[in-house]
Amino acid sequence: MPNAYISGTGGYVPPRVVTNDDLVQQYGIDTSHEWINRRTGINQRHYAEPGVGTAELGEKAARLALESAGLEPQDMDMILLATLSPDYCFPGSGVLMQRRLGLCDGPKARFVPAMDIRNQCSGFLYGMGTATSMVQSGACKHVLLVGAETHSAAIDLSTAGRTVSTLFGDGAGAVIVSATDEDRGIRGWWLGADGRGAEVLCQHVWNISKRPFIPVDENGVGQVQPEEMFAHMEGKRVFRAAVERMCEAVLTACTAQGITGEDVDLWCFHQANMRINQYVAKTLGIPDDKLIHNIDRYGNTTAATIPLLLDEAARGGRLQRGMKVAMVAFGSGYTWGSVICDW
Ligand code: UT7
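^ inputs. structure came back:
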């Protein structure tokens, strides 16, 4: 059985920066830099321009990952795209990204499978489990795995929505998971879910059980209530569940690998709230200098947080061959996971 390793990384955030002060001044939200920074660690986030969607952000990150791996889009045997903000309800953004990457064009067309992963903040780690299995089984030599989000289009940028909307930002991160005979790569992945938390963090704009599905007024115009248009979150419940499940995910991974936290050189935690990550690190005795962050600059980019962290660490020289890397995430579903990788 071949090993699966990360042969390339890429990251992209759209150019427009929105600071905490901009949320007050440009959008008129009753909030403050002080509140957002103290409770979450966020200073700014990036928003995509109108007309730019998730497949486009994903494509940009994917091209950088391909370049760093020295591979072409046509070398990929499968495409996985993790997102909670797909371009359309269906089809998934994976096929749109495949098309954008030129895989459907000309004599070099490759109609490889393209699949969306809908596991929110844990989506990238669910993708890592899937990509690793595809490579280790021999089904694929190279899998393109992207986490991409365009949150800014679908958040309530008014005071009523501030508890959720101030947290999220747009961006994309990508990795190439490749086969190797070398003794390195993804050593294990552990995923979990607890559907009892499904409505604690959710967005119900699409609710197929509803009749009428979308109420229509006398002019034939569909009516969607504000509480259905935007994400709903019981923040404190999610916070507590995140701390518990992330600690559990770390312990499960370390026990399965026969390692302790001290054996890990670099920790990549999902970036939902700096305070969540500080609690987890403190509980487990993880020192600050082994933990990397990007929430201060990007906010919560959901499926993109961990691949963006990996890309920054790899390009910045922080991540070196032979290092043991742990990735941990928790999010809507509830879903969670951890991955241990020898870089
Ligand atoms: O990525 C997936 C998972 N997501 C998470 O893990 C997020 C988990 N939850 C959290 O990070 C935190 O619960 C939040 C950052 C979302 C909220 O922090 P909190 O300390 O739990 O605040 P809260 O919701 O209890 O709100 C406290 C107060 C409220 O005012 P009152 O009722 O005490 O007068 C809120 O209305 O803060 C108010 N508030 C704000 N004020 C200024 C909520 N959001 C804001 C805001 N600016 N952006």
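The pocket of oxa(dethia)-CoA is lined by residues 31, 35-36, 39-40, 121, 162-163, 166, 201, 235-236, 238-239, 242, 272-273, 276, 300, 331 (CB under 6 Å). The chain has two domains: 3-183, 186-199+231-342.
thumbs up if we can close this ticket
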